[in-house]
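Hi P.,

Sorry for the delay on this. The queue was packed all week, but I finally got your sequence through. Input first:
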Amino acid sequence: MTDSRPVVTRFAPSPTGYLHIGGARTALFNWLYARGRKGKFLLRIEDTDRARSTAEATEAILQGLRWLGLDWDGDPVSQFARRERHAEVAREMLARGAAYKCFSSPEEIEAFREEARAEGRSTLFLSPWRDADPASLPDAPHAIRLKAPRDGETVVHDAVQGDVTFQNAQLDDMVLLRSDGTPTYMHAVVVDDHDMGVTHVIRGDDHLTNAARQIQIYQAMGWQVPVFAHIPLIHGPDGKKLSKRHGAVGLHEYAAMGYPAAAMRNYLARLGWSHGDDELFDDAQAREWFDLGGIGKAPARLDFKKLEHVSGHHIAQMPDDLLIGELAAYLEATGTEPLTARQTDWLRPALPAIKSKAKTLPALLEQGRFALVQRPVEIEDKAAAALDSVSRGILGELTAAVQHASWDRNELEAAAKQIGESHGLGLGKVAAPLRAALAGRSSTPSVFDMMLALGRDETLARLQDQAG
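Then the structure:
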């Protein structure tokens, strides 16, 4: 299971819908494996299903990969655009005697299978044209089939699943080229992977049987077989195959829920792969540590509580400039108005105090709401209860006391404490009307963190608005 060539991996989605969370993890595994070995990560759009493939779905996949932070080498390759190359290889296999022309119609094949089912025999179609004399072949439409070995076995040396053996008697002569001249997906994948120099095929284990059949094409053409690594699928928390009943299945849904891309990379990397007991890590560590040997054989289970934990860690650790960028991406993903320059200027100094308390980006925005609202600040009912006549008078005294303060946390806190003591009140009782005046809420970050973030002029203006 080794390959001495420089590492080349690929992600090959079908553009028939959004980027599934499972597809995103497959892309991430391929990206990590290539980037950690200074290799190439290629993107191929498997758009041979013309009825279902759309430009909108292709763009949605590209946007999903960009949001996740996965860059690819070169331009995305269209599988459909390479159909002539696929046909050329099928004809070459025909000339080599590794394939043959099959004139059996779909009706004849179905009749064979119905009869086999009725008699309790295998429904594996055995074409009567496999060993026909080339000189006696009719001049009629035909498919080109692989002349697969009938005896022995085909072994998939899999980097995750180990050696998986398939009896050749159970593998049919698959169609390479249909009678209308179009290539089959199974054939096109092999030709594309070979021509793109792919050394490692990392994909879902629902492709494991395909690997056995595809290996036969590699062998028929004398091409080097890549390293296969078939990763288990993602299941829901209940252990069943992930579906919409479990909640979000599209990557775009996680972006809209406010999980930062860095957190999603960390969480998806750990979803089915491990490096000792490490749960939280950055991109550099992931690239350095990721290896196929760390991928488990059992399906991974989606765990939203763990995702929130990972998300909270990354929000808390993220440099403020990057966090502002993540907030901008979140607002764009949800179709929300972007932050104004003023809002950004007030939110930025608040981030060190509030980002350790938020698990998601909308929770962070809620924590920083005081920096985003404009005067006059709207006061919610619960907060308004703290603004009685005595409290408004205290706000007036505090406004005068800090008018010329150095705007240092210790000095601001000392002033509030002194005014509270003069009224026989503790700091908590002074903080309640302060919260209401500054944020319009009864639950907020520290009042002194808010004052420092808003600055002298805005703080004094908000206090004066509510002072008695």
